[in-house]
Amino acid sequence: VGACIWKVATEADRSKFANKTYTLTSSDALTGAEIASTLSELANSQITYESVEDPNAVVESFKGMGMPEWQARGMVELLDLFKNNKGPRPNNDVQTILGRPPKSLRDVYAASAPYVFAAPSE
To answer: Where are the alpha helices (DSSP H) in the chain?
Structure first.
C-alpha cells in the first residue's frame, strides 16, 4: 500500500492517476484457516482460525478491547464480507500502479514477523 501511495503521490504526470479508483490487494485470496496456518509457521506457534457465528459476541469482544459500539458493528460487517467471499478479489491494480505484481500476504507477513513475533523487551 505504501509503495502505491508513494508512486501516485510522486508521479510527474499527474493525469496518469487522476480520477481513477484502485482496489489494492495482495496476489492471493486466502481463507481464515490459510492465514492462520501461515502465521503459525512464521510465529513458530499454533494459531487457529475460529469462525464465530454470533455477531453480537464479536461486537462484545471488540467492545471489551475498548472499541466503541458503532465501530465494533462496522468491523463485524466488514469481517462478514470477507467471511462470505464478498471482499475484493486479487486484481492487477498494484501491477498497474507499480509495474510489478503485488506481494503475497505470506511475503508481507514474513517481512514483519521479526517485529510482530519478537519476544517482549524488558
So the answer is: 2-10, 32-43, 55-64, 69-83, 93-98, 105-116
Question: What number of other Cβ atoms are within 10 A of residue 116's Cβ?
Answer: 11
For residue 55, the one-letter residue type is P
The C-alpha cell of 66 is what?
A: 475498548
- Residue 79 — φ and ψ, nearest 5°? -60, -35
Per-residue confidence (pLDDT) for residue 70, from 0 to 100: 97
pTM of the model: 0.70
pLDDT in tens, 74-100: 999 998 888 887 888 889 999 999 999
Number of other residues whose CB lies within 10 A of the CB of residue 32: 14
> How many other CB atoms are found less than 10 A from the CB of residue 117?
13
Handedness of CA 27, 25, 29, 111 (dihedral sign): positive
Amino acid at 93: D
Would you say residue 120 has pLDDT above 70? Answer: no
Q: Is residue 101 within 8 Å of residue 94, measured between CB atoms?
A: yes
